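Entry for the shared binder. Reason: the reviewer on the internal report wants the predicted structure included alongside the sequence.
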Amino acid sequence: MIVGAVVVLVVAGILFLSPSRSQQMKQQSTLAVNRSTTPVLFVHGWGAGLRSQMPLARKAIREGYAQKGLVVYVGPSGQIQMYGRLPVHPKKSPEILVKFPNAYIGEYKEAAALHKILILLKRNYHMTQYNAIGHSMGAYALTFQAEKYGNSNQLPRLNKLALIAGPFDGILNRHKWDQPLSGKLSRLWDDYPGQNRLLANGQPKIKHPEYRVLMRNRYRFPRQAKILNISVKSMMDLILMGPLACHQLYHWDQY
């Protein structure tokens, strides 16, 4: 998918590169960059897992931006296990891939687990700062976690946050097979194509409860963090066919 390739390039630019001193001082006319060594947290969305994160993670390593770091498993009861190693002085950005026990636990439980993971990363691995990338519900979970806990001294400092197709204000009800039919989570799938839109003042016409939560706590979001929210300003219908044409693979690089 061409969209996936574009997403990979944009995310790599914001998470794995940082301006060099020569660029900042404008001593050269060519673009010069330093490769970041800040760990990058990968958080998957609804119905996904490690498999959905691998294309972007492998691409970053293959292109020389990142290196292998940790794989973090969250158990059914909330227990956390980490495999791999996090170098004290990495030459590239170590990747930290998070796998939730149930890909359908919802954004608030994901956020609670992320909070515990970040505490352990600082306590056990002395991680002082991090970047993060979240897709779909993982994007919402990262944002909610940053608003609720992001300024805590128990956590590493959040530098950059890349969000891909986050459901911040409603989820389209497409009657998919893995869509919940009962319980609190089922109420998130209450949007339909063309139902919501941005008003002249920049505010959405319909403000879903999950959107109101983020807006209410937005002042608590870490001020130093930079955000890349990958979304669209206008919509265009594009029919994609085949087994890879789905929301879960939106951040895959197929080229």
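Summary line for the report: The longest strand covers residues 66-74.
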